[in-house]
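dumping this here so i dont lose it
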């Protein structure tokens, strides 16, 4: 039989991203046909965090002081929520999954730097929701701690989703960018036939994504996000301010680079708001949305060897039609579409990516792309909890 599957497993991928809106769970069939991987999404769902747990996670992300005991207890509460999400999505399948791959919840991320005398330059990335608890509560083999090994070999450990992009979304003739717009935005640059030239693939975090829009929507309008961009659409962006903000160091830094809520923090928003004197609240949302779109578009012009033919959007930002319109205008003649148009559900993409990374770990195949993370070498990602 030609191209028969060499392997087929049922996996659950779990992640809560930097928006901290809830746990994205994906129940995925992974089909391996002689190194050519396919995924079939059986169910994808976001299980919202309990409000009090979300508030506590955001407080820790923002640097609120907590004892080690409190952090450990938070670790277990997050793991319990992840286990509940896994158990809930498991019911959508017709058999028990072979594997749970759980990213957990990032609460701290520090990119690597050049080491100084006697000081480490290694990055630091903390994901809570320990795999041991998920394995214990579900009875399913669980893989977690996906970022640690890349950090150990000098990498940023982020973004990791480019492995899914290279395996599932490269095109024979087109230059593609896979653009995630979650809490933070990040991209994968995929030249044609990327799978044959993995060293030419790179990716990096390229902006604030939705975090600033979300925080401003909460503070100025009392809503958790600007649904469909309806608020921003009513305002006028201030381009002078945006151009000034785009001069900041993060946007000028060449890849590899990664960021998080440590930079795009409540203090960062306060600084932006203090510079928005005289703008209406609608203008402020319009300005932050335009800033988000321009940071993304500028990163293509500044850092990509070839401007893309297609931009495939993943993440919740794809639901903000105003942000999408602005991005489409800014990256013409590239065509902006959602990954759904290429067979990958844009809301479940990160959860599918971790299911795939879990499968690679199980098969002892490398999960990181050194050309993306800046790691010294390829490594196995993730720790297995039986
Ligand atoms: N209908 C909508 N209109 C506007 N924005 C939306 C809509 N739906 C979702 N979003 C935005 O998407 C965000 C969630 O996106 P997503 O779930 O991709 O983030 P994440 O996975 O937590 O982040 P990251 O990718 O950085 O880890 C919400 O916080 C909101 O800003
Ligand atoms: C440390 C960390 O959690 N980084 C996230 C964050 O959220 C988006 C962007 O920054 C990305 O680099 C990464 O997540 C995705 C899942 C990734 O690793 O590809």
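and the seq i came up w/
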């Amino acid at each position: 039989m030609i191209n028969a599957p060499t392997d087929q497993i049922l996996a659950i991928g779990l992640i809560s991203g930097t928006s901290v809106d809830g746990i994205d769970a994906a129940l995925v069939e992974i089909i391996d046909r002689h190194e050519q991987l396919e995924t079939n999404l059986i169910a994808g769902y976001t299980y919202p965090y309990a409000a009090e747990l979300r508030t506590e996670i955001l407080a820790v992300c923002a640097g609120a002081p907590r004892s080690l005991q409190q952090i450990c207890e938070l670790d277990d509460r997050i793991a319990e929520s992840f286990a509940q999400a896994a158990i809930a999505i498991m019911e959508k399948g017709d058999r028990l999954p072979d594997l749970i791959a759980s990213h957990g919840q990032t609460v701290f991320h520090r990119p690597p730097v050049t080491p100084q005398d006697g000081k480490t330059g290694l990055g630091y990335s903390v994901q809570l929701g320990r795999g041991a608890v998920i394995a214990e509560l579900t009875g399913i083999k669980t893989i977690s701690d996906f970022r640690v090994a890349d950090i150990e070999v000098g990498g940023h450990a982020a973004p990791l989703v480019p492995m899914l992009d290279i395996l599932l979304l490269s095109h024979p003739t087109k230059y593609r960018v896979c653009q995630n717009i979650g809490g933070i935005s990040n991209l994968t640059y995929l030249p044609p036939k990327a799978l044959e030239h993995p060293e030419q693939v790179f990716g990096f975090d390229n902006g604030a994504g939705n975090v600033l829009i979300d925080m401003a929507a909460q503070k100025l309008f009392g809503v958790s996000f600007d649904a469909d961009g309806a608020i921003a659409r009513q305002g006028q962006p201030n381009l002078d301010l945006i151009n000034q903000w785009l001069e900041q160091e993060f946007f000028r830094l060449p890849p590899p680079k990664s960021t998080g809520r440590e930079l795009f923090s409540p203090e960062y928003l306060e600084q932006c708001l203090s510079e928005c004197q005289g703008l209406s609240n609608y203008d402020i949302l319009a300005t932050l949305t335009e800033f988000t779109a321009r940071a993304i578009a500028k990163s293509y012009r500044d850092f990509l060897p070839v401007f893309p033919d297609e931009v495939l959007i993943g993440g919740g930002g794809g639901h903000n039609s105003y942000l999408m319109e602005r991005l489409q205008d800014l990256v013409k003649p590239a065509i902006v579409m959602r990954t759904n148009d290429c067979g990958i559900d844009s809301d479940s993409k990160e959860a599918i990516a971790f299911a795939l990374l879990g499968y690679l770990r199980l098969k002892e195949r490398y999960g990181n792309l050194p050309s993306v993370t800046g790691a010294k070498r390829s490594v196995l990602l993730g720790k297995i909890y039986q």
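Residues 17-19, 21, 180, 182-184, 209-210, 213-214, 225-229, 315-317, 319-320, 350 surround adenosine-5'-triphosphate (ligand 1) (CB under 6 Å).
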